[in-house]
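task queued by scheduler; priority normal; single chain, no ligands, no partner chains; default sampling; output format set to C-alpha cells
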Amino acid sequence: MNFESTIWRALLIVTAFAIAPSSVAQEWPTKVVKLVVPYAPGGGTDYVARLLATKLTEQGVGTFIIENRPGGGGTVGSATVARAAPDGYTLLVTAPEMSTDPSVRLSLPYDVSKDFAPISQLTSGPYLLAANPSVPIRTVEELIAAAKRQPDKYNYGSSGNGTINHLKGELFQIMTGIRWQHVPYKGSGPSITAAVSGEVEFVFASTTALTPFIQSGRLRGIGVTGTERFALLPDVPTIAESGVPGYDVTGWYALFAPAGTPPDILRRIHTATKRALSDPDVKAKLAATGNVPVASSPAEFTVFLRSEMDKWAGVIKTSGVQKIE
C-alpha cells in the first residue's frame, strides 16, 4: 500500500473541488445512480445506504437506488464497484472491513488504496459487548478477573473470522492479557442468536443489532467499545472506563467511487452527501441506531482510513489471527 500516493490523490481531489464545475459534472446525473452495498439487506450498512439514497433523491440531486451485492465478506460487491466505469453512476457504501481486509485476507480482487476514490466517511458509532444473562459476570472488570483465573474458559461469538466483530475480541485479549475463545458465525444475526440461547457466553455486535436484546433483557450489556457511552443504554459503561484504558473500536460507514472518477463529479457527490447528512431527519434516524454523521472530506477520510488499516494490521499481526481466503 502506498499511503503517500493515496494522500496525494486525495489532496488533488480536494484541490479540484475548488475548480469550477465542468460540463461533465453539470450534466451528472442523467441516469440512475447505484449505491452498491456489499452485504445482504437489513444490516447496518444497508440501513445507512438506504437512508442516504432516499435523502439524495428527495433533495432532487438525482435518482439513487440500492443494489445489494453480498458475498465474500463484502469483497464481491466492492470488486463490482472497483471494476465499474468511473462515471459517478456506481458508488460503494461500505463498512470497517474495508480497512481490515487488506491485512486479514490472503488475497483481494482489488487494491483498496488504488482502485477506489474515497469520497467521505458517512457516520461514526460504537459497538457493544453483551453477555447471556445466565453468565455470572456483569462488568468488564469481572470478565477480566474471571478470564485470568480460568484462561480459555470463556468464549465470544462474532459475525465471522476476520470480521471487525472478531477483531474487537482479539484487541480486547491483547490489551487485557486474558485468553478467551472466538466462535465465528455467518453474520451478526446468528452470533446474537447463539448468545441469546447460551451457545456462547459473550458477543460483539453493532448497537443497532444488540440494543433491542439488551433493552428486553435477553442479553446483558457489558461494555461500549467507543470512547463515550451510548445514549440509548446510558447505564452500560465503556470498556475504556472499565479497566481497559485506550480501548476504542468505533464503527463507521463510508462512501467510495471507482478510481478515475472525474474530480468535478466527486465534488458534486461529496457536496450532496454532506447536505443530506446535515438534514435533521437523517440525524435523528442515525442517532436512533447509535450513529452520528461525519461527512468528512476525501483527504480527511483518507487519513482516517489509513490509520484504521494500520491499527488493525497491528492487531492481526500481534494476535496471530489466521488469514482467510
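post-processing summary
- Residues 3-125+251-319 form a domain with the D-Maltodextrin-Binding Protein; domain 2 fold (CATH 3.40.190.150).
- The first helix runs from residue 3 to 17.
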